[in-house]
Design brief:
about 45% strand; 12-stranded parallel beta sheet; 1 helix; mainly beta
Amino acid sequence: MASAHAADRIVEEFGVSPTYPNVTSAVNAAVDGDRIVIKNRGGNIPWIENITVDKSLQFVSFTENDFFYVQGDYRLVAAPGRTIDIIGMRNTFGGITSDGTADVRSTRVRILDCFFVEGTVVIDNPAFDVQLVGCTLNGDVRLQFGNVIGNRINADWTGLALETNATSPVTDTCVVMGNIVLGHNGFVITSTQQVLHIRNNFITHAGYGIEVHGGSLAATNILANNTVFAGGCPNIVLGMSVISPGAPTPVWEYMNNVITQVPCEPYSIGMGGPGNAYYNHVNANDPINVTDFMANNTTDVTIELDSDGRLTNAVAAIDGANPSPVFYDLDLSPGDAGAYGGSYSLDNFHPLHTGAARTYLTHHAYNIRSGNTLRVRAQTFDR
C-alpha cells in the first residue's frame, strides 16, 4: 500500500545527503510506496549486496533507458497488499527469491526489462502474483501464479516451471507468451486454478518442450502458435504433452503450432493429450495423439527453422494457420503457423530493452459487429 510520504531514495557512490551510499541503506530508510533510484558506480561496477525487500518499493535506474548494475540476491517478503517493482536490473551474479506467508496472490511483483547474467527467478510461493516481462535470464524460472511474457530464457534445466496446488481467490488467465527458451525442458506447468494461454513461444529443448498438467474448467485452455524444436536426441522427446488431472476434463485447443526436431531416432510424440488439434504442423516419429478431434494437421513433413525459430523450409506451415482472418499475420496475409504467426507474433516482443515505457500485451475481441464498441485492454509499465 503506497504511503503519503512516498519519495525517491537515490543511491549514489560517494554521494552526499540526501543520497544513500548503497542500496541497503536506501531500502532501510524507505517507506511503502518509495522508489529506490540507483545510480551506477564508476565503470558500471555492480552494487554488491544481498537485499531483503519487505516493503512496497520500486527499483529503477537513475539513467533513463539504462540498466542499474547489481550483484547479489534480492529476497522478496510476502505481505497482503504489498507491491514490488524491479525495472531495468542487470544482475551480474544473483537472482530473485521469495519468503514469508500471506494470502494466495496477495503480494504483487513485477520484474520488467531485467537481465540476469547468471541467476534465477525463484518465486515458488503461492502468496505472490508475478509479472515477468521482457527479461533475459541465464537461469531457470520457477513461479506459482502470474504471467510470463516476452522473455529470453537460457535455462540450466527447465526454462519455466509454473506449478501450484494452491486455490486462487479468482480465476483469470495465466499468459505464457512471446518467450524464447533454451533448456532441457521448455515449460513444465501444473495448474487447475488458471485458464492457460500458452502462445507464440519458441522453445529449443532436448526432453519436454511443453508439458502441462491440468488446465482450468472455467474456459478453454489454449496452446497456439508455438514453435517447438527438439535440438537433442535423448531417449524420449515430447513436443507438447497435456495430462488431464481427471474427470471432468478441461477443454484444450491445440492450434497453429509447429513441432520439429533434429534427425534422430528416439521415441517421440509431437503432440498428445485431451482436446482438439487443428492446423498444426508436426515432423515427428509419432506425431499427434489427442483424444477428441483432429483436422487439417500435417505430419511427417519437412520443417526447417533458422536459429531464431523462423520458418525457412516449411511449405505446409507457411500460410498454414487457421484460415480465418482473425488469425492473419501482421501484414494481413494468411497466417503462418508457429511463433511468428498471427497478431501475437514473436516479433511483437523482441528485441528486449528498448526504452522505459512499455505496452507489453493487449487483450481484445477477435470479432466485433458493426456499430459496437471495440474494447482493448492493455498491460503496460513505465518508470
